[in-house]
Amino acid sequence: MRVAIEADGGSRGNPGPAGWGAVVRTHPTGEILLERYGSLGVTTNNVAEYTGLIEGLAAASQLKATEVDVRMDSKLVIEQMSGRWQIKHPGLRPLAARAAELVSGFERVSFEWIPRERNKAADALANRAMDEAQGKPVSTAPVEDVAPAAPSSWAPPDSLENATRIILVRHGETALTKQGRYSGRGDVPLSDEGQAQAMAAGGRVAGISRDVTAVLSSPLSRCVRTAELVAAEVGGVPVTVVDDLVECDFGEWEGLTFAEVQARWPAEMAAWLGSTSVAPPGGESFEAVATRTRSALATALKSYAGGVIVIVSHVSPIKLILRDALAASDSFLHRLFLDAAGVSTMDVWPDGNIAVRSVNETAHLR
């Protein structure tokens, strides 16, 4: 599949509050496949522009594109990525290296400089990111050539007509959960407390909706058992195992606490906390988890459109789903806490609009 990426970034102050935007379009029709944007705190225009490129390439990779045409109005980024200009600033070298790593995953990538007026869509997204980060009102007026990737208003519609409701449930407690240890692909069963929590979560799900269409679960037993107990509370809906909902593979960190990992792998831990593209030794990156989780969610939305879907999974997949739904930055992943058997709810409309209604409900556990 061939796609075109339009990317941009900006900084109000250089350095100053910064944001980036990226649009992935079909080639040659120009239909928008995906839009992304995000804020970066205080940094420079060039860092923001490189970030827009990186995020656009990552999005194209997730869409399984094989050929990519990159279009940006940043002469510096285009010339440096084309190999015609040297990368003299040390702060840009890691960003260029990350972009080059993503480029190597495609069969062909071209870089083209375009004037700013032809990059309005990505520019608008970057400015939206900066406005939101600074607490400024965000215009809902349509931007030429930009298809909305988020609701035109923050307020969710009063009607649920045509919406698909997604109820996210983290599995109940296990022995490793209670000890605060990384629990990835190890098949650790629910504890007695975890069983009770799962039943309580089922009661909460029933309180949200008794007309559940499907209950989907990670293949690991702690999720499958939680899903079975939840399903029993909503009329015995069959549990469907979805492999892509499995937890992140923490590799050599499996079964260890944060403090133990920090003491033994300080550099690797710092790199992992700093980038979703970095994996624990022998493990899986959050970027990889996000790719398969998005695929699982997209399939569920297509298969059960307009229904109520319960997804029983783990911390990482649920956080990544919520990050995308809230258009949050990657720092969200390390700031959100999800309790065992916590429940989160969101609605998704056919046009892509999303309303997150609750995050990590735990009142049913008290």
TrEMBL record:
SUPFAM superfamilies: Phosphoglycerate mutase-like, Ribonuclease H-like
Alphabetical list of InterPro entries matching this protein: His_Pase_superF_clade-1 (IPR013078), His_PPase_superfam (IPR029033), PGM_Phosphatase (IPR050275), RNaseH-like_sf (IPR012337), RNaseH/PGlycerate_mutase (IPR014636), RNaseH_domain (IPR002156), RNaseH_sf (IPR036397)
Biased composition (Gly residues): 10-19
Location of the RNase H type-1 domain: 1-139
Region (Disordered): 1-20
Protein name as it appears in the record: Bifunctional RNase H/acid phosphatase
Protein's organism: Paractinoplanes globisporus
